[in-house]
Design goal:
homodimer; three-stranded antiparallel sheet; 2 domains; 13 helices; alpha/beta; globular; Rossmann fold; 14 strands
């Protein structure tokens, strides 16, 4: 069996880790391969280094190197390089880059500078984190540099665009977003293997990633949405909301920016042209109605630890085997 | 008074630190300004980062951040980034880059990438190390990227060129060098202020830096040698040899490569077209004869600590005031 998942950072990475745990501990499913298509709209160049936050969170989480309490970055991290950069007056300082993490960006930037594609770089980084041995393939959604920008009020009656990371990390999504603009996305091509991974999968999963700035961005890569509509695999999504609120992150602020209510049902509406099954938390079950052809199921969605997350993934796979694709 | 010194890494940096100490502790000399022209032939791009070993050793030594026992790199250094780079399989691993040190290279590389010249970058780095407050100006010899390569036997009867750092650091100068080739030096222009600093100085000093791959490279920058010949300032050099051997580094191997005996007198011969005074260790006094117009003096040259080094600098300045320029 082959599973393809579209993922953002923390939520997507934790879900896939739980999925892998479920597959590895279920007789007959160990050989299942998983392709993860990662959002790269969050990517940013800081200090001349190319940083891919979602790819890195996936690498660290799936490779066992993540700072678990934080959900991103490396365990046992230090910040000596950034302290020195601050002493040199290098800006910005609002994005925390740990020493171990910086090595990833240095390696990536060097390889990109030597002409490797982001896909090739990601494959090399994944090797160090043991993803192939886990039957995990990690693909960036595109090799084209794309960057999500957030249009906010400029305080003088007009508007200005800031990088997604500045809005998300520096301002904690507290500046009302008018809209998101993904620079380069219209001219981007899906990375090698991405469309095939969707078309040839036995199951496609949407982890509980941000529906606007993670999965929504991946869906904007030319060809991805068509591949989802056309795949013969069942497509099952896991709601990123519990009681209408994101467990972490700022999905509610993102949904508000695009004029979509922060409800599990409204999120399903963003996917209804290709979604077959939609798993919501029991807290949202009563208010989430079947939407077009999307069947709704409910089960606890709090990813409190790996086994709990594995049960959510198991539930999603059960749904996949029950819905008509 | 204004002093200009041409310097390589450890020896040059320690000498200038001693010089500054002498000036700062001598009534009437506190206001003396010092311009240091640094060798950049050692520069190398590692992991996509631009590393300027001599400039950095000067910054760290003069700014109080150097690892004193080692003579280069930062005190209280760690190597977490490089450990990760090794885990990613990034080469080379023979050049030790500490975490604090890497921040310097990241800052420099970012600024260079934004279009700043190496001079401008060096000025920014020097500000963080408090050089202006010490009346110290640090100039790279050129803003043109130049790189010293070492031609060695290829083991099959032919020859090959390797980067100076690979020869110096990886092979500890143990591969017999046939010659040195400085890529880009013929087309390099002296950095802004370099030629003026030589021409307008009241005293020009040659610290006990490597005469071949440090001072020799600076002398190869178009215009520098002419400026030294033409300056009205006395030019006084301090021998890098004691008893015909370098106190540290591999000056003897470098001299051998260019067919010059490792003696204080032979080194003076490399400078005799512009040198006015030559300070050698008492151990070399008997064998170092006046060479053309170069007057020879002797005094202890072991830079065992800052006060001892200050006394060497003081001696060099006394010589400068006694020789005809």
């Amino acid at each position: 069996m082959h599973i393809t998942a579209l993922a953002g950072g923390v939520g997507g990475a934790r879900f896939v880790r739980g999925l892998r745990h479920h597959l590895d501990t279920t007789p007959g499913l160990e050989d299942t391969t998983v392709t993860v298509v990662a959002n790269t709209g969050d990517d940013i160049t800081l200090f001349g280094l190319r940083v891919c936050p979602d790819v890195d969170t996936l690498l660290y989480t799936l490779g066992g190197g993540v700072h678990d309490g934080q959900g991103w970055g490396r365990a046992d991290e230090s910040h000596r390089v950034q302290g020195e950069l601050a002493a040199y007056g290098v800006q910005p300082q609002w994005f925390a880059l740990g020493d171990l993490d910086i090595a990833t960006h240095v390696a990536r930037s060097q390889w990109l500078g030597q002409g490797a594609t982001l896909s090739e770089v990601t494959t090399r980084l994944a090797a160090r984190w043991g993803l192939p041995e886990q039957r995990l393939e990690l693909l960036p959604m595109t090799d084209t540099p794309v960057e999500t920008h957030v249009v906010v009020d400029d305080g003088e009656g007009g508007e200005r665009a800031i990088h997604f990371q500045e809005w998300w990390v520096r301002h904690q999504a507290s500046l009302p977003a008018r809209r998101f603009v993904v620079a380069g996305l219209d001219r981007a091509a899906a990375a090698p293997g991405v469309l095939e991974a969707v078309r040839r999968a036995d199951v496609v999963l949407l982890p509980p990633s941000n529906p606007v700035v993670s999965i929504g961005i991946i869906l904007g890569v030319p060809g991805v949405r068509d591949a989802l509509r056309g795949t013969s695999a069942p497509v099952v999504g896991v709601s990123p909301l519990i009681s209408g609120r994101p467990v972490r992150g700022h999905a509610d602020a993102c949904l508000e920016a695009i004029g979509v209510p922060a409800t599990a049902g409204a999120v399903a509406g963003l996917y209804e042209d290709f979604l077959d099954g939609w798993l919501v938390d029991p807290a949202d079950a009563a208010t989430t109605l079947r939407r077009g052809r999307v069947e709704v199921f409910d089960g606890p969605l709090l990813m409190s630890d790996v086994p709990a997350t594995a049960r959510i993934a198991e539930h999603a796979l059960r749904i996949a085997s029950s819905v008509p694709a």
